[in-house]
Amino acid sequence: MSIRLQLLIVALTTLILPWAGCQYARELETALRVSQERALEASADTIAQALSAEPQRVFRDFDDSEPFAPDQGDLYVYPLHGQPLLDGYREDWDVPADPKLLPSASGAATRLQAGSTERYLFLYLEVDDPHFVAEPVGARGSSDRFDRVDLNLEGPDGTLKSYFFATDAPGLIPAQIVVKGEDGYDRTTTETRIQAFWLQTSRGYHLEARVPLSLVGSRLWVQTHDGRGGVSGFAVPDPPRGGRLFMTTPGLSALLGIFIRAGTRATVVDANGLKLGVAGAVGNTPSDENAEEGTWYRGFVTVDTSSWPLQIALPDRVVGKSVAAALAGHPAAEWLRAGGNQELRLQAAAAIMAGDQVRGAVVLEQAGDQLLELRDRALTRLFNLTLFATALSVLIAFGVAAVISLRIGRLRAAADGALGRDGSIRLDMPESARHDEIGALARGFERLLGRLNEHTQYLRTLGGKLAHELRTPLTIVRSSLDNLECEGVRADQRGYLTRAREGVARLQSILSALGAAARVEESIKQAERVRFDLKELLTSAVAGYRDAFAGARFELDTPPDECLMRGAPDLIVQMLDKLVENAVDFCPPSGTVRVRLGRAGGHHEGHYELSIENDGPPIPDAMLERLFESLFEHRRGRDEKPHFGLGLYIVRLIAEFHDGKVQAANRADGGGVLFTVTLPLI
Amino acid sequence: MRSAIGYHSNAVKKQIAIVEDEPALRENYAAALARQGYTVKTYGNRKVAMQAFSTRLPDLAIIDISLEDEAEGGFDLCRELRALSAELPIIFLTARDSELDAVSGLRLGADDFLTKDVSLPHLAARVAALFRRIDALRRPQSAAQIVRRGALVIDAEKMQTTWNGAPVTLSLTEFWIVHALAKNPGHVKNRQQLMDAANVVLDDNTITSHVKRIRRKFLEVDPAFDAIQTVYGMGYRWVE
């Protein structure tokens, strides 16, 4: 695994930051949720306390110790927000509930709904009585048979009054009341303060009635009679039970409005959970663009709310655990999902007390989306920040890795190239000036190479030193032999002397070969550079070789123009000597030594190319590279005398002295070897 | 000076001093030269030699460059000997063979510079040649031994060389090389032939540097000198 990859993985571990951020955000959200619950609970409790101090402003003064019992005629009066038109239609009431079916033994199906404004009580009746029986003129209320609606009303003073609505033609009608006259007869008079609109429909009739609140006490019963004698609705019980009006206390909504803040809805319910007053609205903040943008990772961070209970929205009452708990005396809060959008909503409730009795509760509702939005905003920022941090750290890690691998790569390249093929050692390592581990490594390399270099130098000079040291004893032997010969030896001893001399001669040639490299290097150092014509030199030299090597055939191929170069002609000749000598050695008797001079192309542009080719056997590839090393003996020539390879080493030294290069290659056909020297043009 | 100390005729045995720290070699050289009829004195170091030379100068000195613990004791000795006598023939004989040593030795006024590779008969020949040169200096010139090539005059007898009448001081090896080249002008002499003529065993490089030095010495007396021509791959020739 490359360092780059390793550091990338390390850098990716910073992705734990967003994860930790999510965890943190969730905990934060939970904490916020709890604190919001507490705050709302506290608000609800405060309002409840305040309302407990003024129960007369909350509750109409009637006995509601009995539970709300619609089946016994108890009626919930919806608060109306505008003054409805008396037209027999309910559409302008804006009440989301349907009218309630009244119990009926024999009469037509009758549905009733009540509503109230600040001044009036409104009643709405639907009677499925398609057979209209008009009120005859001068009819006697209770005995005659015609379509009639009875309204029994307990006045604020507790007196019971019985009104009825009947008409000979649909339209706006007043209520009628039967009063006992002074004469003892029942007489029917109109009560113009109570107005109604009788609307005939295909299914029956609608009646929309308006009663001033000043006439209304705490109980009310409605009955309908049809022309055939059927009766529907609640009769007036005796003693009166049921028929209670559960209605909004006037002024309560306005009072509640003082307590609440924007975005909160406060509802006061009575002990039955019926709404007595409502103020404010749950603010649904419009979703902004940020939330939309952040959606792709919301999946990672949202708290699962799908298991939360759905809010049941009823027009007349508030239900739920928190309300139930509050009515039992314990303030409580709960999270709900509301509506089709599954908006989060927090509901908190607290009990309104009268003495030690729970008379109702204050319910506060708030949108939970504010919290979500808060969390989302925090998370978005957190996410963006951590993503940025991750990207940055990945980038930095990558950069650091790139720099490190670049430096190591440089060091590796230098280490690869430190030891040349020719055994030369480059001592300077890149990075060694840096004060870090890589620098230390580079310095370690330098020390290693330094020691290696000392050793190589020792080995390189060992031959010369050895030759020098061996020279004196060899001279002693040879001069002793000389003396011995001059003193005169017996003829039979002369053979030994000759052999000793031959041995000495061989030793001497080996020693001079050993020392020669050092001598050549020294003489190369002292060489002077002059301008000369390489072509002329070559022509003259090859002519010399033709004389010197009578047995060999030479071919010379030179360009027509003169080939000026700068260098030491003596050294060039010496180099040629070695190359030609070598070529002649390995060239078979019938072969030709070809000497060619030309301009080099390719990446040797700007150089002369001097090649010497023989028809000798090819050199194994492994040896081609090492051919120019000092004291490399690769084969024996025709003369069977040992070659110490110094010749080609000298060739290389001379070529390098001239900033040139020498290389050997086998001819493609395998029938010869080609030595090529490149030398720079002037 | 020489007359005060030295010899007057061939009848007196010539005395050769060998300063060499290697006893075996010293004795071998001494034996070989004694066989040629010379009186040989041997010394192991510079101090002993100098002591002896201060009382009596030899007729010829053969000096090793490194003497015991003095790596360049031979050079010092040569300098001191030259101070005593400007004309005493001195031969450096050394295991060293570097160009630098040869140049230093010859610049100090040595007459010849031989490596220890030289065989005893060669050494004897060199010694004889040096004596011959010195003897010839005091005899009247005989025309037969004189080679004239234009501005060059070589007296083989006295082993003296002049160019345009100005003397060119050549070492023995150099003298023989010039002699061999000038005797047959126009003929190319290869390195082997020059070595044979100079009676030395040298490698090619040394011949090259000898020739270089010869040219430099002639150039000192005549900046326009170019009579020795290099024939690449073959050798050198004298051109008139």
Question: How would you describe this protein?
Answer:
The complex is a heterodimer of chains A (682) and B (240). Chain A is α+β, with helices and mostly antiparallel strands and 682 residues long. Chain A has 4 domains: 13-59 and 250-286 and 300-377, 2-Layer Sandwich (Beta-Lactamase); 70-247, Immunoglobulin-like (Sandwich); 437-522, Orthogonal Bundle (Helix Hairpins), CATH 1.10.287; 528-680, 2-Layer Sandwich (Heat Shock Protein 90), CATH 3.30.565. Chain A is 37% helix and 24% strand. Chain A contains 13 helices and 24 strands. Chain A has helices at residues 3-12, 16-53, 252-259, 289-293, 298-301, 321-327, 369-418, 437-487, 494-525, 534-548, 569-586, 621-624, 646-657, and strands spanning 75-79, 100-101, 110-116, 120-127, 148-154, 160-165, 171-180, 186-200, 205-212, 220-225, 231-233, 245-247, 264-270, 275-279, 332-338, 343-354, 357-367, 530-533, 553-557, 564-567, 592-599, 607-614, 661-666, 673-680. In chain A, strands 1, 2, 3, 4, 5, 6, 7, 8, 9, 10, 11 and 12 form a 12-stranded mixed sheet that branches. A 5-stranded antiparallel sheet of chain A has the order 14-13-17-16-15. In chain A, strand 23 (661-666) and strand 24 form a beta hairpin. In chain A, helix 7 (369-418) runs parallel beside helix 8 (437-487). Chain A is rod-shaped. Chain B is α/β, with parallel strands linked by helices and 240 residues long. Chain B folds into 2 domains: 2-137, 3-Layer(aba) Sandwich (Rossmann fold), CATH 3.40.50; 140-238, Orthogonal Bundle (Arc Repressor Mutant, subunit A), CATH 1.10.10.10. Chain B has 9 helices and 11 strands. Chain B has helices at residues 2-5, 23-35, 46-55, 73-84, 99-107, 120-138, 172-183, 191-198, 204-221; strands spanning 15-19, 39-43, 60-63, 90-94, 112-115, 146-149, 152-155, 160-163, 166-168, 228-231, 235-238. Chain B has a 5-stranded parallel sheet, with helices on both faces. Chain B is globular and about 50 Å long. The N and C termini of chain B lie far apart (40 Å). The A-B interface holds A 468, 471-472, 475-476, 478-480, 482-483, 486, 508, 512, 515-516, 519-520, 522-523, 526, 537-538, 540-545, 547-548, 569-570, 573-574, 576-577, 580 and B 22, 24-25, 28-29, 31-32, 35, 95-100, 116-117, 119-121, 188, 190, 203-205, 208-209, 230-235.
